[in-house]
Amino acid sequence: MHYNSRSIALAAETVRAEAEAGTLRCVVVESCPTRWKNTLKVQPAGSFLRGLFDNEMQAAAEVAEEFGCGVSLGDQAVEDTGRRIAQLGGATLVEALTPFAGGWGRIQRDLVAGWAQLDSPDGVSVSTLLEPRLLLATPLALFRYPASIAFKSPALFSVLVGLGALTAGGSDTPLATDPAGLSLDLLQAAAFALLETLFLGRVFLVGLLEERNYVLARNIRRAATAKPEEANWAGASGTRSKAVKGRTVVAVLGMAHLNGVKQILTTSRVV
Predict the structure, then answer these.
(1) pLDDT tens by residue, 189-208
(2) 154-194 tens-digit pLDDT
């Protein structure tokens, strides 16, 4: 869970244990060059904002750098993700309005495939969220996540706030009192809710989850096999790491990515 104190401690402890055992090769963090550079610029190690917005990625990277091990950026470029979200949003809108041309079928297939990335019988389950220390730190994480976005990316934060207002708000016009008018109002509300669910669900499951899972899995595998001169070592302070030592790669990912990335790494030999 991003920005959760329990998750931060777990990431740092895991990296330190592997490093002290001499088995750590590198740490892969769920970030891209643009996002990582911005993070290090806004909240460098030792700064007030670094403490305020404490997070699992910097915590893990700082431990790795302490032992001279690599830090690799594993996520898709945020610019590519933004373009895909726009493409998926436009395609979903068109396909939702053209059910007889196969639009609904394509949306359904994407939603099913995306949901499969979340669910795994031998992976992380919903019960993980009930871990007491994780639960206790959740309110802090819920503050840090949006606040950090607001500091690092004010434009993105404004877009997210606008989307939230759009989806949470509604018409101030009162519902009709006659049966025919009331039925029409309810039908319109149901249609809007369905379109909103399809739009947000497809964008999240495909654009923010499934496609990035493949990128993350590919970069984790690359980090495990790349030579030092070929690796995208970033470091916790933006500098290149000194060396590759052991064979263990610790990947620090958000909970929603874990099952999907695990499935890809354990079932595909080509990603």
Answers:
(1) 655 555 566 567 777 777 78
(2) 766 676 566 566 555 554 555 555 555 555 555 566 555 55
Q: What percent of the chain has pLDDT over 90?
A: 43
Please give, one letter per residue, the 3-state secondary structure of 155-215: HHHHHHHHHHHHHHCCCCCCCCCCHHHHHHHHHHHHHHHHHHHHHHHHHHHHHHHHHHHHH
Nearest to 1 by CA among 260, 220, 215, 256: 256
Chain-centre distance of CA 173, in angstroms? 37
Q: What is the dihedral of CA 114, 117, 119, 125, to 10 degrees?
A: -130
Q: Are 28 and 219 in contact (CB under 8 A)?
A: yes
Here the contacts of 95-103 (C-beta below 8 Å, separation 24 or greater) are 96/194, 96/195, 96/198, 96/199
**Pair 25, 245: CB distance under 8 Å:** yes
**Sequence letter at residue 10:** L
User: Domain limits of the chain?
Assistant: 5-167+196-267
